[in-house]
């Protein structure tokens, strides 16, 4: 359960994951998360509340892979999310798993076989047939005063940025579970044009990931893997 903060939230911060909080993964490396953001800089801007991230690599995993690209399997992806949650000091994450080009199996047997291959929980895989379903998952966190977090995943095509539905859903959930001022300013921080488009469409301000970059973090300039 998310407890009420001591003071109402007046500036709410939502964050992208890959390329914002942690380094993007390339095609020939492991998927261990490498931090890019400075958590103190995030705190200076407002109250970080959640991660909102496209993770279409899971759809490609169920589809049997994408030529020329590598994606983390489910455990590796979830570890990256968990790491980002600890770094940003948030207890909630929202993930859009759909990818418009990934042909995931439509039959149940094929879907579950593919899910087993990359470690996707059965409940998450079966939700691919119901875009209106949102699956909550508990994750263990190792942050001061925070032992458990929640990751919400959906296959809804409109959860995928640049559509604003994921950000709006996060906003609605957080207004119900956190003590947020009526006139709260909402900011989404990301590193791509789709992040900015989603933020604007959701009625939020947008900040570039450079605003929270750790000056000691070195991001190698590699071709971006599609998410």
Topology order in helix (H) and strand (E) letters: EHEHHEHHEEHEHE
Number of strands: 7
Helix content: 25-40%
Total domain modules: 1
Poorly predicted regions are 1-5, 219-226
CATH architecture: 3-Layer(aba) Sandwich
Strand order of the largest sheet: 4-5-3-2-1-6-7
Largest sheet: 7 strands, mixed
In terms of DSSP E residues, the strand content is 15-25%
The CATH class turns out to be Alpha Beta
Q: Compute the separation of the termini in Å.
A: 30 Å
- Given helix and strand content, the structural type is alpha/beta
Our count of helices gives 7
The CATH topology annotation reads as Rossmann fold
- What does the average pLDDT come to? 91
Rg to the nearest angstrom? 17 Å
Shape: globular
Characteristic terms for this protein:
227 residues, alpha/beta, seven-stranded mixed β-sheet, disordered N terminus
Q: How do the strands and helices of this protein lay out in sequence?
A:
Elements (H helix, E strand, L loop, with lengths): L8 E7 L23 H7 L1 E8 L2 H6 L11 H15 L3 E5 L11 H11 L3 H5 L7 E10 L2 E9 L10 H13 L2 E11 L2 H9 L3 E4 L19
Parallel strand pairs: 1-2, 1-6, 2-3, 3-5, 6-7
Antiparallel strand pairs: 4-5
